[in-house]
Every structure is written in C-alpha cells, then in structure tokens.
Amino acid sequence: MDEVAGCRNFRDCFGPECSEMHEASRLLDLGIFFSPSRLHALGSVWCVLTLKLLRCCTCAVACGLCNPMASSMNSSLFRYVRVLWTILALLMACSLSTCGGAPESDLITRLPGQPDVDFRQYSGYVTVDVDHGRALFYYFVEAEHDSQEKPLILWLNGGPGCSSVAGGAFTELGPFFPNGYADGLVKNQHSWNKVANLLFLESPAGVGWSYSNTTSDYLSATDDSTARDNMMFLLNWFEKFPEYKSREFFLTGESYAGHYIPQLAQLVLKYNENPTRGFSFNLIGVALGNPLIRLRVDAAAVYTYMWSHGMISDKTYKAITRTCDFTQFELTGGIPEECNEHMSAAYDEQGPFINDYDVFLDVCLPGVAEQELRLKKKITRRSLGVDVCIVLEMETYLNKPEVQKALHANTTNLNHSYKQCSSSDVLHYSLSNYTLDILPTIGELIRHDLRILVYSGDADQVVPFIGTRTNINDLAKSLKLKPTVDYTAWYHQKQVAGWTKSYGNLTFATVRAAAHMVPYSQPARALTLFTSFVTVLHDRPGGKNLFSKLISWP
C-alpha cells in the first residue's frame, strides 16, 4: 500500500505500467474496441498487455481504497477500474482466437539493416512429420495496411529445389531487397504485401533452411511427397495463425510451382470435402508464373523461342525439329542421341553469356574486381531498372549469422551454406516427375470454379510463353471453354504491359519485357497484374472480367 500512498492523479496512482492503458480504456468507453473483429485484428499485442492490466486493476483499487488524497477522484477511479476489467474480460473471451494466434516466438523484431516499416513479420519452422523429424521453414509478412482485411497468399518458387524465401521474398515480390552490398535491405516499392498478406514456404525438406532428421527424405523427394508436406504445413500453420482460417486464400508460384501449386490446390479441395481440423480453406484462386505444365510442349518451345529471337541458326533449328520427338519425353523421359547433339549445338551457338531467364538482361559477372562490379551494378540498375547480381547479394545476406538469428533460421546448423537453389548433393528430386502432364489437374481446379491466372514473362527462354500459350489453348479446347475476352493488349501506366486472353475463370496473360521471374524484372506491371487478380471478379453473370480495366486504353 505504501507505494501508492502518495498518488494524486491517475498517473501517480497507476504507475508507468498503467498509464499506457489510459487511452485504451478511454477508447473502450467510447465503444471503439467492443467490435470482436477489431480485437481479433489487434492480435497478440493485447495478449502482452493482459498481465499489465491485472496489475493496473490491483493498483487502482489499492489507490482508491487506501489513499485519502484520492478520495476526490474515487468516482472516476472506479469507473476506470470497471473499464479496465471490461478490457480484460474481452481479452479472455477472445483468447482462443487472438492470444492463441500469431506466435510471439516467431515474431521478427527487426532484420539487420532493415528500413522502418509498420507491418509485422514472422518466420520459423512448422513440423510436417514428427516421426521423421521433418520441418519446413516459412517467412510471413503482413500486408502494409489493413492486414486483417487483406487476403492471404502462399508463394512457392520452383526448381525443384529453389527457395521461396531467397527467391520470392527477397528478390521478387517481398517487402525488401538486398541493398546492393549485402549488408542491409532496401524497401521494395512494388511489394505484393501492398495488397495481400504474404506467406513464403521453403519446400521440400532440403530446400533453404527446411530440414529432416531422416536422411532418406533428401533422396526420395517427389511431387506427391512435396504436395503432402505442403498440405500438412498449411494445416499446421493455420493452427499457429488461426485468425487466417477464414481469410480469402490464393495459391501462387512460378516455374516448377506449375506442378507444386495445382497439386497442392487439389489436396486443399479434397480436404475441404471432409475438413478434419474443424475449418475449411477459403480457397479463391491459383496464379502460375511461367509454369512448367507439359514438358513435351514447354521443351519444344525453348528452341522455337531461341530461333525466333535469332540466337540459333536455321540449320540447327531445322535439325532439332527433325530429330527431336518431344512427345516421347513424357513416355520415356529419354532423349535420342542425335536430338541431344543438336540441342547441345543450339546452346553452343547461343553462347555462355546469355541469361536464359531473361534473354535481354545482362549477366552478373562475379569474377570481376569488387569495385568494377559495383560500378557495373550501378550502371546496370540505372539503365535496366534491375540488379543483375541480386541473387549473389541475397545469398551473402542470408548467410550472415545475425540475419539467420533474426529469422529464427538454421536452428539445426546445416552442414552447407545457404543457397537459393539446393544442389543435387543436398536434395535429389525424382526426374520422372518433370514429365507429368499438369493440364488435367488445372482442369479439375477450373471445374471447382477456382479463379485461374497463368502469366508469362515474354523474355523467358526457360519456360517460354509460346509453350504456355499453347498449353492454355489446349486446355480450353479440351474443356470446351469459350473465349470471353479475345486476345488483346492490356495496359499499365498508358503503356502496353502485355497481351491476354480469357475463358471465363481461366486467364492467360503475357508480361511484356519480363523475365522468368516476372516480379523481379517488371515489378510495377507484376503488381498491377496481381492486384487485378486478387481484387477483381472474374467473368460470371453480373461480374466483371479480370482485365476489364486493364484492357481498356487508360
């Protein structure tokens, strides 16, 4: 009682722990915090304050009852105590959905060299197989504003064997990029967390910081095992973040995620038929960037693309078309020797200094002196708008012990350095999976009325738009889908940003001058495309087409 005997006002009475609650109690008295959705959105912040509230209430009662100097303020004091207890009651009532939500142990306080931001970040591990000791690493970023109202996006990079954290998060669509010297971060002005909450997953085990205590898991990765682990990850992650269970949910990715994402979506739909965890996924749509869908079509398109861009001779291209039966790739997985020789000749003609992922972009030259490299990067960044050495910078940054500590990463002290894409020495992925035809799986998603966007950067030689466009046309034909938007240009900032064609819920779009990693090389156009995908209704009675605004001249 002595510690409050001399109080003359609220601040003196309650002390430093309680004074910060004054504004919260005032707002509550005005009815602002009575909304359950508001309390839910405040999340774990209120959980931290619960213990303070207990002390505040005790302190307030002690002050009012035991201090004669406070008798004149008893009426206000006990009104304040009542309000504080009301807050506490609401906190306890929502504890399962809020305090049991976003885990404080995974909260990132601050990344080294990170600029100031107003949104929260989380990262850590989610166990997907207890018996094998297999756990997957994730990085989660809240939307910049109104995160409680924005959809949730899962992003997967491909490979197979490439990291969605190193790739998607820190070189493409996440909130930060390396600053150019690998000692800090800069803000990505076109981050997709402007319109959504972003979840990046390193999968399968052996990619990035994801691991298994069972060595055989690294030797037997397949599409099926990866899809099962990804599904288990989602189920367990939503238990960590229950406030997102009913949120609009989109599955997105690029490259070999053309396998990962449709296969995962298939499992999500199957789960929703019998939701054993007490909730159903609010899956809205799927977006695939430069996706591997049918190897026989996508592989053939590579050489057509090289020839059409003047990188190989007529002679070599004709030899490839004559000797290579790409339709056999799916049946045997083998390549006839004569065909293989001509394909090798094509790459010899192309030369070693072409970036296959963006044929118009300069290559990074890590062997030059550091001073020259920095100068080249500045010149390149000014002229092309992208940093061609960003992968090297990102890997250097993520290998720093202080960065890994901030990310709660590498807790098992892996015996190899962090790489964007795991080598075959670390992860062996079954080659037979490459030949799987994913079109039927995408067709199933369309039949479930999911929103589907397939987009292609037109500077990509690895999975060229030529093959992807053929795949989508074939899919539409097999499902007897009718065009709702004929092939036409779409626009960004009064410039042609690409071309598009829609079949109701299925949309194909190219992104002009974009690489295999579209958000990396054309960030503004990518954000415009993505924003339209997650916010605009598709073709349906009474609805609007995805590109209804984008295909009209501004």
From TrEMBL:
Its EC number is 3.4.16.-. Keywords: Carboxypeptidase, Disulfide bond, Glycoprotein, Hydrolase, Protease, Secreted, Signal. Coiled coil: none annotated. SUPFAM superfamilies: alpha/beta-Hydrolases. Gene3D superfamilies: 3.40.50.11320, 6.10.250.940, alpha/beta hydrolase. One of its GO terms (cellular component) is extracellular region. It is an enzyme of class 3 (hydrolase). GO terms for molecular function: serine-type carboxypeptidase activity. One of its GO terms (biological process) is proteolysis. It is found in: Secreted. Its main location: secreted. Belongs to the peptidase S10 family. This is Carboxypeptidase. It comes from Marchantia polymorpha subsp. ruderalis.
